[in-house]
Amino acid sequence: MSLLLQANKTPVPRNIPLALPLPEWLLVIILVLSFLLHILFVNLMVGGSILTLWAEIRGKRDSDYDVFANELAKTVTVNKSLAVVLGIAPLLSINVLYTVYFYSANALTGFMWILIIPLVTVAFLLTYLHKYTWEVMQAYKSLHIAIIGLAVLIFLFIPLIFLVNINLMLFPEKWGSIQGFFSALALPNVFPRYFHFICASLAVTGLFICWYARRPNYPVEQLFTKWTRYDIIRIGYTLALAASTAQFFFGPLLLVTLPSKGIGINLIGVILTGAILALPAMWWMWKGLTGARAHIDRNFWKVVLFFSLTVLFMASGRHVYRANALEPHQKLMAAQTAEFEKQSKEAREGAAINSAEGVKENGDAPGEAIFKANCSACHAKDRKIVGPPMTEMVEIYQGKQEDMKHWILSPGKKRADAPQMPGFPQLTDKQLNDLTIYILSIQ
Question: pTM for the full model?
């Protein structure tokens, strides 16, 4: 696999040689568990807003649906706030564990990734506007529905941006061919992942409705004119069962569209276990929907337990695939980092033996030791490492020594295929002069 990655000219950047703040296994546990908490409320936010829109549209003809939509709208803003707060831990964890991969994906999708912040802000404001103008806008129902409709569209688009980025970080071999967000959106497994997420949001929202309505102190009779507690629980169970059934289509579709590099027997075992655990929960929901009205939610907590185990296994499977898929590239990156550190060490040791005039005992020209200590990690004589070769520098700056000095002290960014060069303001005038003379002497 490493040879294949090299043959495909996969970008292999150096890693950031910093120790992890916690043991890796502990960071993985934090990532998986905190992500599950975060995604739970993201599901409720997305699924709740979709269901609110659906119920309010139906509420134009049936007042109980309108009340139902109002009840759901009250929960969307709360779940939204919890989703944001609980998203901090998994975001920090994935940044620490997969720094190079996560930020590379973010850079490649650029504008869309940055757009998340204003989109989230607008969507949140729309949900608050929708929630607090319910009574005021009863005479302008279509406009009120349009407000939540726009919020739903934004809520549906934001997870797509996240999914594209999280997906892209798994495939460094694609980085060289990706030309922005829409290019990454075309990867074959993006939409199966997205529809899998939407079905999960609806299933979780369905169970949330059941829990919300079955609370003993929930005033069903005071709120609704015709509906009973059974009717609301039935809506929740029906939604959860339908969405869970759809997952048995989108789940395998997602699996077969994933590149085989991350699929192993460990992943298959975890995914199958999670799917098998979902079957009893679905059976209990079906029994509740087809059985006696008084017993519809008899197995509710069993359903929640088995679905929770399913979600835990699926989240673990997500991490297993990520670990499998990135392992070959991580080995290449570790080798690249080790080689860079070796060259850097050799350059520093070489600089240390310079005489006060900058001339080494082995006869190196003045400026050569300075070059090795500061520049050789990114530049070579006639080949590109990170920045251009020295021969190309000579072509650009021949007869322009002062321009070269200025660039070294305070460089900008000229090349799209290379990172911006750091400045070297710590060099003295003599060192800078020796360095530029040495570089410009290269034939």
Answer: 0.75
